[in-house]
């Protein structure tokens, strides 16, 4: 068994030579990502990348359920970011990606309706923040003019 160990180390070194250097996370942050155990360590692992801004909007405590909390979960943040990107792709027009973006935005619309239907079915009070947790497409530019 000891004889196989250098082989695996050599294999790992060979693999790292061929890993694509395109993107923000690999190969420099590979070790940090392997050691992630919670959302705080994930934010630290992706610091100084565009993902840090996205993940910094995630609530760090999980003491309430989604319908009662107005803080964003990681799912909420990722869906909002995807909706922002799909909206931009759809408005870009003149390329094949706008059709894919249209389908994904329709999928998001179905998720919104499903979320609201679940709240109705659970008879959740209308004054809880869960009713405002749907994701509106084409709203990515709303905060662009703040401070100008």
**Helix fraction by DSSP (H/I, runs of at least 4):** 40-55%
Straight-line N-to-C gap:
65 Å
What percentage of amino acids are in beta strands?
Answer: under 5%
Report the major sheet: none
Cα-atom radius of gyration: 21 Å
Describe the structure.
This protein is mainly α.
Keywords:
single chain, 148 residues, mainly alpha, 2 domains, 6 helices, 52% helix, extended
Write the layout of secondary structure elements.
Layout (H helix, E strand, L loop, with lengths): L3 H15 L11 H5 L4 H7 L4 H6 L18 H19 L4 H25 L27
Short description:
By secondary structure, the protein is mostly helical.
């Amino acid at each position: 068994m000891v004889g196989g160990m250098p082989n695996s180390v050599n294999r790992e070194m060979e693999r790292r030579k061929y890993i694509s250097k395109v993107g923000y996370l690999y190969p420099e942050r590979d070790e940090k990502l392997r050691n992630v155990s919670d959302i705080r360590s994930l934010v630290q692992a992706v610091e100084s990348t565009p993902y840090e801004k996205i993940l910094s909007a995630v609530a760090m405590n999980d003491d309430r359920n989604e319908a009662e909390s107005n803080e964003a979960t990681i799912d909420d943040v990722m869906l909002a970011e995807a909706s922002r990107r799909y909206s931009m792709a759809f408005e870009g027009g003149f390329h094949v990606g706008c059709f894919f973006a249209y389908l994904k935005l329709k999928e998001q619309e179905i998720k919104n309706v499903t979320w609201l239907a679940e709240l109705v079915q659970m008879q959740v009070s209308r004054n809880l923040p869960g009713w405002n947790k749907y994701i509106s497409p084409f709203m990515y530019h709303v905060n662009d003019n703040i401070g100008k």
